[in-house]
Amino acid sequence: MNAKLPAGLLTAALLIAGCGAGSQSTPGSAGTPKVGLITKTETNPFFVKMKEGAEKAAQANGLELMSAAGKFDGDNASQITAVENMVAAGVKGILITPSDTKAIVPAIKKARDAGVMVIALDTPTEPQDATDALFATDNLRAGELIGQYAKAAMAGKPAKIATLDLAPGVTVGRLRHDGFLKGFGVQEGDPSVVCSQDTRGDQARGQTAMENCLQKAPDINLVYTINEPAALGAYTALKAKGREKDVLIVSVDGGCTGTKAVQSGQIAATSQQYPLKMAGDGVKAVAAFAKGGQKATGYTDTGVTLITDRAVPGVEAEDTAFGLANCWG
């Protein structure tokens, strides 16, 4: 799609919610610089919070926000369409959480070649320097923290581990998985990992994955999950088998719902990240570029905190009171 697209068609394309096209969230007057936000989905609470942060920052910095999302986690085609639409609409910068970290790169290159600054949020592209900058949690560190916690919490008990992962080809999933193994002190392929299933970070898929793993290895006693929806799906499957009390579940995200699940004991610990900050800082960077031409570069770590009410020796953590006060801030 190019800048000569008829105005009526462009407007129609931009208002198709959740189909990879953008919708204007913070209207501005003619000449107001535009910033685009493209998330993986519109329904995941993590991305809802990210959009909230972008909206607030756009209003505060005098920008017009256009937003878009894939129909599902992994929907690269819709994200490509969103990039093209936003470039055609004249955005100064695009913030994106890529669903397919490799396949989105050509579309990002075209946007950058057109003079648009592109910042990845949460999930780095492959290669990482395909975008101008990255504002994200250190996802390897997030996984490492819950791996260290799980190792200490198991207190020497032999582990039978299930990993409920994201999907092939997504860097954030691989980084968290690898970090968990590193923190726990095992290598990929270690016999203690008795089952691995992809969930796309979805609660229903997480439940199915856990059911499959329990059929394969009924003695699982430790579950790593890519995020808290997958963790809650795993908990549901474990509860149906009467195993929810004797299986340790650890996760990543630290959303308000997930933190409440830690508080209630459904999840033992989670690594909390801060999507509102990612989006807010990203919008500020676009504002600076729009006003002064200075592009953001490199990686900005937006922080991670282990949240648990069952602290273990040697692993720094905050309790759920802290987690609820800061969930996705």
Automatic annotation (TrEMBL):
Q: Name one Pfam family in it.
A: Peripla_BP_4
Top-level taxon in the UniProt lineage: Bacteria
Q: Enumerate the spans annotated as Periplasmic binding protein domain.
A: 35-293
UniProtKB keywords = Signal
Main location as per UniProt? other
Q: Where in the cell is it found?
A: Cell envelope
Under the heading PROSITE patterns, the entry gives: PROKAR_LIPOPROTEIN (PS51257)
Family, per entry: Belongs to the bacterial solute-binding protein 2 family.
Q: Know the name of this protein? A: Substrate-binding domain-containing protein
Q: Which organism is it from?
A: Nonomuraea antimicrobica
Q: Name the lineage.
A: Bacteria, Bacillati, Actinomycetota, Actinomycetes, Streptosporangiales
